[in-house]
Amino acid sequence: MKLPSSSATNLHKENMRHMIGMKDFTTQEMDDMMELMTMLKDARRDNAIPPLFKDKSVAMIFEAGSTRTRVSFEVAATLLGGHGLFLSPRDIHLGAKESIDDTARVLSRMCDIVMARTNDPETVDALCRMSTVPVINGLDTRFHPTQMLADLFTIKEHITDGRKLSDLTLAFMGDATDVCRSLLLTCSKYGMKFKQIGPVKYQMQQEWLDLADELCKESGGSYEITDDVNKVSECDVIYGDSFYWVTQMDEKAERLAAFMPDYVITEELMAKAKPGAMLLHCLPANDKEEVTREALEGAYSVAFDEAENRLTAQMAILVYFTHKFSSQPSEETLKKHSERITGFLKQL
What are the boundaries of each domain within the chain? Predict the structure, then answer.
């Protein structure tokens, strides 16, 4: 006979969801998240953020380092009245001395939400299978959903002529990275026009284009994969990312030779884009490689607003994925437990 669990946590949350990629959410759900971002950003501006994550914790698993993901989640938890725990491979036994399944089950009983930035999508998927709290993908080799939320929000903030996201064309300059893939699918979901502009060898794989086809059929969006830099003339948003990542250092020279100088975002390239076009970059930026410092500092650049909005996005994510399972104790309940515990302590 299986003994009943004595857990003090809710192990059977109804309608609990994880955040693996933005493709799993409707545009209405994404709009709701961004509306929440607007309200939380306004509250931060007034130094009046409600403690919507009070007495809660987010476990932050980092197999790969990050400035923006770590700082934004940890600060977001603090601003909302909660706590973020940084967990590197040196801090936990993820998949080594302890299985990912067991790690997920343990963290679920101690924390209210789990964020994982991993080198292997299977790690995120395994956490989702066994976790009884929401799991947020902080980046894997497939998707970067928290970046997408910040990107869409930043673009919307800087549209001043009444257009909607579906009226815009976004160009990603470079390799078919997780960010590029996420933008392809997110733009397709929103009915936007998306272009990946880069050398043929580094263009998007067919399996993701097939998925984008399905999304575009529903939304009316479209995409184009091209090596023609002049296509920026059709674009409202130019997006930059590194031409190589830490796992591709052995390919660095080859990659830079393929991308430079044609696909580097410069002031001259931005001048070819549509009037009023904006520059985004997920950062970190490699000056004079995928973007020049002059372009990154240009009047059209919103890259640092975009970086700040990672914090705005993480605040909204922590609240959005936990608020249904939050309950505040009554004064009577607080008093009951306080009297019981303090009464016991006085006898010791």
Answer: 22-145+310-320, 159-301
